[in-house]
Amino acid sequence: MIKVTDSETIRNIDFTQTDFANSYYDCTFEGCEFNELEIRDIHFENCTFRSCNFSLTKFICHLSNSRFIECKMTGSSFEYIHRFSSQFEFTNSILEYANFTGTNLKMAKFNNCSLVEADFSDTDLTNAIIGKCNLLRTYFNNTNLRKCNFSSSYNITINPNTNQIKGMIIDETELRGLVSQFGIVIA
Predict the structure, then answer these.
(1) Which pLDDT score is estimated for 175?
(2) Where are the beta strands (DSSP E) in the chain?
(3) pTM of this prediction?
(4) CA–CA dist 31, 87 (Å, integer)
(5) Looking at the domain that runs over 1-187, which CATH code has it been given?
(6) For position 85, what pLDDT does the model report?
């Protein structure tokens, strides 16, 4: 285990070979490897993860005010994250096949991310901002999308009958993704 003090920058550590501390506050992780880990019972608060690999990682921990920048998170699972986790920001990250089922993502920010085939079932995305993201085959079911801002995102398919969409913002070019399940053709 590496000794960590608050407000530290941790660079190029392979956490698949190193034990975690119990908590991290105001730390920055750069170029670290978390691939295929089950991150359990760790508390991250006000931490930034930059250029880290979280592919197939399961988050069973507490994340508060967490930022993921240019991270690879293909197949990551957030469905077992601590229920009081909050304030997520993802920028220029690959979140393809990520599982957010049941996660509280109120006011989360996704900017310029690939969310291809991500699963947001039973997720609360109230007031979230999902901008410039590829949402090809992304799954929304029983998802709270109230006041969620999808402007500038693309490949959006959302069934208004199975999701809460009041106040949701979407670019008019993506309207076909809201009516496609009704057999409506937009010419």
Answers:
(1) 75
(2) 9-11, 23-25, 28-30, 38-45, 48-50, 58-69, 86-91, 109-111, 129-131
(3) 0.92
(4) 22
(5) 2.160.20.80
(6) 82
